[in-house]
Amino acid sequence: MTKILNFFNIERVGNYPLYMVLPAVIVLLLLTIYPFIYLVYISFHIWPISPNLPRIFLGFGQFTYLFSNPSFIESMQVTIGLTVVGVSLQISLGTLLAILLSTKTKFINYFTLPFMIPVFIAPVVVGLIWKFMFNYDLGILNYLLNVIGLESINWLGTTTTAFWSVVLIDTWQWTPFTTLIIKAGLDSLDPTPQEAAYVDGATRFQIFRYVTFPTIAPIFTVALLFRTLDAFKAFDIIYVVTRGGPGGSTYVLGYNIWKTAFYQNQLGLSAAMSVIMIIIATIFALILVKIMKSQMER
Q1: Is 50 exceeded by the pLDDT of residue 199?
Q2: What is the tally of helices (H) and strands (E) in the chain?
Q3: Number of C-beta neighbours around residue 116 at 10 A
Q4: What is the 3 state secondary structure string of 242-283?
């Protein structure tokens, strides 16, 4: 170890933290930075999968084409719609459930672990489970509707029901995740300000709105950041359940990228879509991180 330190001349530089994180930085460069640079390089070319076909440099031509391509614009709209609706529901339900699970009710802790089970299941498995449940003839959801005298619903057969079915699946799986994050924030709070507000006559809603929420606002931002970035690149559930249909109602950007690359044999165009997705996600993440920093400085 001494020889390694002497080799890097750390004693003279005196920057120990830099050398301690150097292995992690190298791994980061190999696994993230280099693939991204290569992705950008591919996006500037017509890049067929077959190595026998020519690869033609286009520059920004494919990016220009995408913003006039109805399929790409539609997939962006569907992705944003699913992300906004799904994440909003997950944050709202996660907040309500976190408040319930944070109460000092007896045996409440026994419900926390079973409640987290959906998070531990792979999205592909979740998609298969719900696809069987949504089956028009054999699904348990339509069976229960028939038991109470209602007609069966074609859950995945119309544009409206397919969209909300995907939202339901995503909400079922990831609401426990947002609940856990927000619950951790609630459990870490000092109860003294809340008790003082209660003594002063504030209602539970007023206590949460004016005392609790401002304190754990950065926690909400963290949950929003994680879920938005994850929902924006959704692919697994769409691929298993709907394949982007019907009528493009669930044709998200992630599925469009996969189909363009491996079904239409256009790796360059698919790479250009991926670059646009990364840029949008990065901008949104930077905005949320800036908001979170401002909340923590208050």
Answers
A1: yes
A2: 18, 2
A3: 13
A4: CCCCCCCCCCCHHHHHHHHHHCCCCHHHHHHHHHHHHHHHHH
Tell whether 51 is covered by a domain. no
C-alpha span between 238 and 233 (Å, rounded): 11
Q: How far does CA 29 lie from the centroid of its chain?
A: 23
Domain-located, residue 6: no
Retrieve residue 104's tokens: 């000092």
Question: What is the DSSP-derived secondary structure letter of residue 71?
Answer: H
Q: Is the peptide bond before 70 cis (omega within 30 degrees of 0)?
A: no
Range of the domain at 189: 70-297
> What's the CA gap between 281 and 279, in Å, rounded?
5
Q: Which amino acid, 68?
A: S
Q: Is residue 128 part of a domain?
A: yes
Task: Give the residues across from 56 on adjacent strands.
Answer: 46
| Other beta carbons within 10 Å of 181 | 20
CATH number at residue 246: 1.10.3720.10
Most confident of 100-114, 152-166, 204-218: 152-166
Considering the entire predicted model, what is its pTM?
A: 0.86
Contacts 24+ apart (CB under 8 A), 13-17: none
DSSP conformation letters of 133-169: HT-TTT-HHHHHHHHTTPPP--TTTSHHHHHHHHHHH
Domain count, the chain: 1
- Type of residue at 103: T
**Residue that has been written with the tokens 């304190």 in this structure:** 215
Q: Is 215 within a domain?
A: yes
Give the pLDDT confidence of 68-124 residue by residue, as tens digits: 999 999 999 999 999 999 999 999 999 999 888 887 666 666 777 778 889 989 999
